[in-house]
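call fold target=F-box domain-containing protein
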Amino acid sequence: MNARWYRLNSFAPLLKCLPSDAIMATYDESSGQKYHIIRELIPADWVRFEAHARRVKELLIRTNGLGNIHDLGLSGSDVSIVAQHFGDRPVLPNLQRSENEFIGWREEIRLLLRCPVRTIRLDYRRDPELYSGALTSELQLVRRLDTVESLSMGSRLPIAHQLSLLATMPNLSYLSIMVDDQRGSISWMSDLAALPAGSFPKLRTLQLSSVAMEWYRSSTQAVSTLETFLGAVKSHMLFSQLVVRFHKSQSHPEDYADELRKLCSCIARDYPTLESLEIVTLCMPITPSVVSPLCALRNLHILRLPWLMIDPRPGTIQHFASSWPQLTELQWGTRYESSQGALTTIATLRAVLDSFPGLEVLGMQLDTSSTLGRRAFEELPLGEVVQHRSLLSLSLGKSYISEDVIEPLALALARMVPATQISLLHVSPRRQSVTEEGVLPRIVSRMRELAQA
């Protein structure tokens, strides 16, 4: 074991640092391998134990196939020995992150989870109704950890019902909630009115996610649940960053679009001072009309809509630009399909850069594989291009780039971005989405050559 920070999913590394005559290992199918302290530990043993414990920064607890907690490596009697030695002191004094894939902690976890833990994730993939009492108990423990800054509640936990337990956490700045409509999340929202004044005093980021949509009769139920939740907490949770994520959908596209438009209206109405918004719809692409209510959010600095279908017409892009004048990061991007074909071309990229002069980070997709996409290079008057001097990062992930446009695309990008900043430009492709592996790195390389010429 070296002197660097490391993560644990077992007490075994700590116990193995003790002399061999002080410990003994046993194994059984129900609880797995455990280490037992078989003699009284002397001061030198504890010095060695504590020296190793101070190096632990992350504690990642997993479950076995039956959902049983395993591999913590301490028997019940040994927990008492360790607890008696440490008293009120934390066993892992530098622990900052704890990720637990279960509810119903054993005593050894309670012993470990003391300040200064900063990040906690709770998850459980079995029936949460069987563990509602355990969840309440564990949240009572979590809320007493004053140093916790980030808390994620994973799949299928009825956290909305228990939210009041977390409201007074003094340093909680990031809260992630998985909403499970199948378990009646909408009916639980009535409890949120009981949140005390001054709830979540330092909350900055709220992330709401839906479980896999195949568990629903329709994804519109999940969207409705999130809308209800946001409406219920609007006077209690003064966050400035909101992330909303959906997964697979079985809904009719028109029904889903209508519900998502209502959600966008709810966000714009109830959270007009939002500074950062991300909506990820893995279910299906969304059209500009669906997110048009978001134009009321005049304070946005960061907007991520990776499944938004871009309408390349100058009027549409300029309308969005006038609505979000302070944007420094914009992520959007599936190809806009119409009767004319895929229209997200280099001309669209130029229109976006011209319309959002303050952008530092831009993520979108290009299509140069179609006839229309290749023709865009011929129609673009490169000599008139104004360089975009604030752009630091450009992501072209999932772009469709053909071999024959490497040179003109590199030339176009080089003229859009100042030569002094091309070295700072970050192009991050996803290989499986590019027509030919290695195309984008070659474009970046060619851009740098052009800048030096």
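return ok
The domain at 6-328 is CATH 3.80.10 (Leucine-rich repeat, LRR (right-handed beta-alpha superhelix)). The CA atoms of residues 341 and 372 lie 8 Å apart.
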